[in-house]
């Protein structure tokens, strides 16, 4: 079955393709089909992911899956949340992973409560009007380091320290990361839902 991924993020596509492969599902990035990015006007991951999935399904005529993910920092009341991708722009930096990490570390200087969660909400629809979207959430809880560590991954991986491993996500192998990450958790939950409800 071919499913449109409502994202043009190469890192997300790479991770999700590997996670969805066991079901024989082929993920195609919406950009490869000429589908423009959807508006994300909402304040929750689930609302934005649903809007993106419906948009991609409408433009492609195919089932679609969307991931809305972000960093929720305890000391900031759960922010940046859905604005994670644009976090650096609030502080005068251009949009981008490296600048997001820089801005976060600057904003957290002098803050002792470093607890944070990376959250991934996956939403899948069979059609634009699907009344029963599949929704799966994954959370990886850790602590924000005081400096980047590790070369793997993307996003906030270099500053997301996982006490159970004594390492950041960026210091883990892709296999270990996928087994424990927020996106790995939400993907496994989504695959279980698809098996149960979509596949014969």
UniProtKB/TrEMBL annotation:
Subunit structure: Homodimer.
GO MF term set: ITP diphosphatase activity
Binding site for Mg(2+): 68
Coiled coil: none
NCBIfam families documented for this protein: RdgB/HAM1 family non-canonical purine NTP pyrophosphatase
PANTHER family for this protein: INOSINE TRIPHOSPHATE PYROPHOSPHATASE (PTHR11067:SF9), INOSINE TRIPHOSPHATE PYROPHOSPHATASE/HAM1 PROTEIN (PTHR11067)
Keyword Acetylation attached: no
EC code: 3.6.1.66
Residue positions binding substrate: 7-12, 69, 154-157, 177, 182-183
Family: Belongs to the HAM1 NTPase family.
Native organism: Rhodoferax ferrireducens
Cofactor binding mode and count: Binds 1 Mg(2+) ion per subunit.
InterPro entries: dITP/XTP_pyrophosphatase, ITPase-like_fam, RdgB/HAM1
Protein name: dITP/XTP pyrophosphatase
Domain of life according to the entry: Bacteria
Pfam family, one: Ham1p_like
Keyword Metal-binding: yes
Active site: 68
Cofactor(s) in the UniProt record: Mg(2+)
Function: Pyrophosphatase that catalyzes the hydrolysis of nucleoside triphosphates to their monophosphate derivatives, with a high preference for the non-canonical purine nucleotides XTP (xanthosine triphosphate), dITP (deoxyinosine triphosphate) and ITP. Seems to function as a house-cleaning enzyme that removes non-canonical purine nucleotides from the nucleotide pool, thus preventing their incorporation into DNA/RNA and avoiding chromosomal lesions.
């Amino acid at each position: 079955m071919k499913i449109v991924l409502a994202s043009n993020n190469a890192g997300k596509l790479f991770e999700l393709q590997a996670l969805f492969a066991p079901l024989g599902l082929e993920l195609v990035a919406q950009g490869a089909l000429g589908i423009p990015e959807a508006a994300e006007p909402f304040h929750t991951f689930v609302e934005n992911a649903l809007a993106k999935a419906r948009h991609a399904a409408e433009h492609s005529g195919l089932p679609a899956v969307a991931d809305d993910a972000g960093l929720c920092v305890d000391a900031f009341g759960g922010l940046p949340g859905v604005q994670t991708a644009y976090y650096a722009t609030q502080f005068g930096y251009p949009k981008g992973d490296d600048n997001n990490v820089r801005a976060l570390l600057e904003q957290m200087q002098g803050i002792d409560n470093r607890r944070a969660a990376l959250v991934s909400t996956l939403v899948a629809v069979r059609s634009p009007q699907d009344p029963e979207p599949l929704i799966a959430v994954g959370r990886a809880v850790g602590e924000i380091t005081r400096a980047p560590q590790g070369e793997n991954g993307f996003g906030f991986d270099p500053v997301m320290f996982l006490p159970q491993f004594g390492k950041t996500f960026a210091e883990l192998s892709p296999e270990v990361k996928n087994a424990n990450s927020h996106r790995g958790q939400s993907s496994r939950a989504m695959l279980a839902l698809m098996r149960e409800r979509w596949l014969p």
